[in-house]
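Example 3.2
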Amino acid sequence: MRISVIQMSPGAEKAANIAQARDLIQGALADGRPRMISLPEMWSCLGGDRETKFREAEDLPPPGSNEPGGEAYEFLREVARANGIHVHGGSIAERAGDRLYNTTLVFDTDGSEIARYRKIHLFDITTPDGQGYRESAVFRGGSDIVTFKLQDVTVGLAICYDLRFPELFLKLRRAGADIIMLPAAFTLQTGKDHWEVLLRARAIETQCWIAAAACWGRHFDGSGEPRFTYGHSLLCDPWGQVVALASDGVGWVTGRAERTITDKVRRDMPVLDHRKLA
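Structure, written as tokens:
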């Protein structure tokens, strides 16, 4: 299965981000003929103050309904329907009372929503350069493990900071995952040291393909302070080898997730069968 991961440099204005996403998706479709496209974390609104985040967030229709959604929701739905592909919509901000959810949406080839995942682990840390992040000040954490079927392949969902919690990835593997999607806006300071290492580790541990679409470049927080994301979107195989990797800048990379590779790795080293402690 061919998968394209889109690398964006979004800001806080949703309309401009949708225009950027549209151009990059069309390029990836023409170049790589993917069966599924994935966008980064918070691609529709990255940065800005609390008021901006709530303004650009969306009220989502009930799962499985045909009710219309907001601009980003309908954009993702139309990309899937118009091109006959699956669209993994990275994540967008979902309104939920006085907080938001950091939410992944997945659409099938006719534009129907088939999966929705709310980020479980919230990014409340201080990076090595002293910048503080407190995602829980605006967002709620989710609680559900989510997978979906793409014909004979099971796909698991995670978002950014979830990457540091291998127990989530083990639960996804136990739920049948063959591929795990991880959209991200990894900070430059953490990403340059940990991004690829952690992605490869999760792939090796779970013997799953990992598709990680990431934000790259500069955006501004609510106080106008510049923040930098690392990029380096990639596709990693179940042996931990990176088979497609984006460098700096906006763009995309496309790779092929092969079921035969997954089956061989799991047959030759059946670590899930050997696990004793979890």
